[in-house]
Specification:
The protein is mainly alpha-helical. The chain has two helices and two strands; from the N terminus they run H-E-E-H. The longest helix is centred in the N-terminal third of the chain and has 20 residues.
Length: 129
């Protein structure tokens, strides 16, 4: 940043453009997208069936992960975007450890309802049915 101005310098603008191009390309080509259906989809973070669609930026009420379409194929990558500096893999470990994708999100989560428990015959993420 230059001086007191809110206008970023040219190098910072280029870094932001580079990240934005990378993020939109990743979101467009590497995301799991599924349309709404009668039965909820499993959250890619906690595995509970809380999402009405996949990749629609819906926030899971059980773990507070925002579903940007990230899934097993790139779970280790920190995409940025709505989940900030958290990879899906780290969010899963956090959920297993303390019940939310981040500790600061604990006030926003709830216990899963019986109908939200994962079905045994379907995978946790990327459910194709």
């Amino acid at each position: 940043m230059t001086g007191q101005s809110d206008t970023p310098d040219p190098d910072e603008l280029e870094r932001r453009r580079h990240w934005f191009r990378w993020y939109t390309d990743t979101a467009s080509h590497n995301s799991t997208l599924r349309p709404p259906r009668d039965r909820a989809y499993a959250c890619p973070c906690c595995g509970y069936r809380t999402l009405l669609e996949r990749g629609g930026y819906e926030i899971c009420s059980v773990c507070f992960w925002e579903d940007d379409g990230q899934d097993d194929h790139d779970a280790h990558i920190v995409r940025g975007g709505p989940n900030g500096t958290l990879s899906l893999s780290q969010a899963r470990r956090n959920f297993a450890a303390f019940g939310a994708n981040r500790e600061r999100d604990l006030p926003h989560v709830r216990d899963p309802r019986p109908e939200e428990h994962p079905l045994q015959e379907e995978p946790r993420s990327g459910d194709h049915s």
